[in-house]
Amino acid sequence: MSNLLTLIQENRDAILNEWLQAIREVSSRRGLIDDRELETQTSEVLAAIYIVPTETPLNNLDTSAWRPLKDLLANLSASRAIQGFTPSETAMFVLSLRAPLFALIRKHWGNKADQLFAEITVAADFIDKLALHTTDSYIHGRDQVIIRQQEEMLELSTPVVTLWDGIVALPLIGTLDSARTQVVMESLLQAIVQTNSRVAIIDITGVPTVDTLVAQHLLKTITAARLMGADCILSGIRPQIAQTIVHLGINLEEVTTKARLADAFRLALERSGRAVVRVAKNNTVSAVSKEF
């Protein structure tokens, strides 16, 4: 059994000072973190090692004794992913611990070649496993940030606008996939319920292409809106999209379509028993809504 863990715990303060110096020498992004926070992080890591029983093997980090240290490194990696550190810079935080450990090993076992080689091997393997765990945690944390940003972008890219009392519009920009269609459908149905709307306009002017899959997603959304009691009008049908729909044989016969959002809004007003007329007042012309 290695004596390295006992040696680390007995020389905690010396290792901390040398570790901080090693980090400052290799770090090129010190502007992302100040010295006080860096010292706090290194102290917490060494404190997590200090509480591990000395009989715990260093070659197996899956034991429960190492769980506090692994959790600490995982949280640290996730925070550095948010701060803008790269995976290599995050791993270097742990890898820079090698230099002070190797120096300590040479100091204690420098006159015993076999013991020196054995302890250096144990230390290198221990640090490498911690660095790999740090990198994996960083990637996981970054993936979580990306997923959260994608969800927020989906919500922001599907705004439902109330155009008039009982009329809502959903302008779509970009491509439609299964995940986004689900968000679109939920946003539209929720708006229909909240505003008690009877007409919903889905505008696809900002959708670059319409293929069979996109058409299926639109039809599902329109069907769901109808089940909620709202008539749907599909606007933004450009000539290229119309030709594509015809060539693909997509059946939109039961869907009311318009080339422009303005035309769809005019039809929605008619279906709700309203009309927009121009009236002259003080030599100016303004538009008002008249209900029939």
UniProtKB/TrEMBL annotation:
TM spans (from-to): none
Protein's UniProt keywords contain Phosphoprotein: yes
Domain STAS: 157-268
A UniProt-annotated Pfam family: RsbRD_N
Keyword Phosphoprotein: yes
UniProt entry keywords in alphabetical sequence: Phosphoprotein
PANTHER family attached to this UniProt entry: RSBT ANTAGONIST PROTEIN RSBS-RELATED (PTHR33745), RSBT CO-ANTAGONIST PROTEIN RSBRC (PTHR33745:SF3)
Protein's name in the database: STAS domain-containing protein
